[in-house]
Batch of 3 targets.
Target 1
Amino acid sequence: MFLIGIEKVNVDDKKNLLFIFPWFKLGGADKFNYDLLSSIDRNKYNITILTTEPCEYVWRQKFEKFGEVFDLTSFFYIEEIGQRLYTI
């Protein structure tokens, strides 16, 4: 998991947080990520989540309640994702 703080002024004056996860599968790491996102005050932060690995995304709907979710494998070839993330 990567967390990147993005400095950008929004109309609502919330800070933006970007989380990069490999996927949303059933398991301990994803439960941890879910609990972490559950603890963030959404009145203070806008949350964006990127996933980098193709899978069935069993828990995607659970994570969508926290913010925007983007599956990078829908936009790029898997081989390109590392380079694309490097340029963020």
Target 2
Amino acid sequence: MDTQRRSSCLGGAGLVGQNLVARLKDRGYRNIIVLDKHPTNVDILRRIQPDITVEQVDLSLSGRLDATLRGRRHRRHAAGPDRGQ
């Protein structure tokens, strides 16, 4: 397994995503970017995982998803339904 490849986790600051990120790190992944639109979750993840990149972004905005995921071979999806929040 090539743990130095760039990995991404969509919705990675929520409950499922935070646990997924911890497991990825336990397995040796180091170049991780997390994208999440909820500012409170983003702030929490930045505090508990200061060595990964966490971006607050609404992926429904045109072009944002493609630009962010370009060049990332490993992609995980942990985002839940929006529910208007």
Target 3
Amino acid sequence: MRDGVLCFLRLCRRGAREVADLVCQLSTVADSLAKTMHRHMAREEAEVLPLLMRTLCAAEQRHMVWRILRAMPLRLLERVMPWVAGEAPSRIRAGIQRLRPLFGVG
């Protein structure tokens, strides 16, 4: 019985090390993904958005934004809209505030 307990404890220690190694690997991958996404978004803001603003008229820009927002899940919109509203001009923020009750947001 004692040998079985010792064997179990060895397995647990080895398992804990393997879990720690996996957590470390996961953390490294998550950091790499975050850096890649940050670089991608910075490039998009610097290159793509100005190009779209020069190329599309205001109505086309509104239509494109509407299509993007319509495709987002509600939970994602809840996280994105404060950021979008924070970057918007004050008259747009006021309009967003007026719409909040329609979406059940106090």
